[in-house]
Amino acid sequence: MEKIKGKATNVRNTVEISGEGRNRSSSHVSVFKINGRPIMIKSVDPVMIEEDDFVAVAGRPSNGVLKAYAYKNLTTGVSGNDSATVMFLASLVAIGAGTAVLLVFSESIMDILPNLGGTLFIGVGLTGIYETYKLSTAYRLLKAERMF
């Protein structure tokens, strides 16, 4: 996990819409630079960063861009990260459902559908827990950040 802070420049905000009909979802994407380094934040909530705000971000680099999991706007005091608590709870539900499917419906190793379904749910849950860990780590890195 990497942390960087400085003045946000070249700030561009957009909304990304995916899916169709009732399965449509949106996410807010903010792209900017800190000390010339490209930063991208993707969130379900609007990213509250404007040109020349002093910000701190934490995330992981990918293809030359720091993909931030959390940010703290030191100019306005606003901070943001996707809801780690909701993701963690949904992950626990997925793991519980997968375990229940494996325990209740798979009587033998040859029952392929319950084994696949249960394993898939557990995999999704474990992935969600890992994502929650990354969000929480990024948030903790920024919690104590101050303007000066």
Overview of this structure, please?
There is one protein chain. This protein is of the alpha+beta class and 148 residues long. It has a domain at 2-80: OB fold (Dihydrolipoamide Acetyltransferase, E2P) (Beta Barrel), CATH 2.40.50. Helix content is 36%, strand content 37%. It has helices at residues 84-105, 112-143; strands at residues 2-18, 25-34, 37-43, 54-62, 65-73, 79-81. It has a five-stranded mixed beta barrel with strand order 1-2-3-5-4. The two termini are 22 Å apart.
* Tally of DSSP β-strands: 6
Relative helix content: 25-40%
Shape: elongated
User: Which architecture of one domain does the CATH hierarchy give at level 2?
Assistant: Beta Barrel
CATH class membership of one domain: Mainly Beta
Distance between the termini: 22 Å
Count of helix runs: 2
Q: What's the helix-strand series? A: EEEEEEHH
Structural class: alpha+beta
User: Uncertain runs with pLDDT below 50, 5 residues or more?
Assistant: none
Q: What is the arithmetic mean of pLDDT?
A: 88
Q: Which topology of one domain does CATH recognise?
A: OB fold (Dihydrolipoamide Acetyltransferase, E2P)
State the strand order across the main sheet.
Answer: 1-2-3-5-4
Characterize the biggest β-sheet: 5 strands, mixed, barrel
Radius of gyration: 19 Å
Percent of residues in β-strands:
35-45%
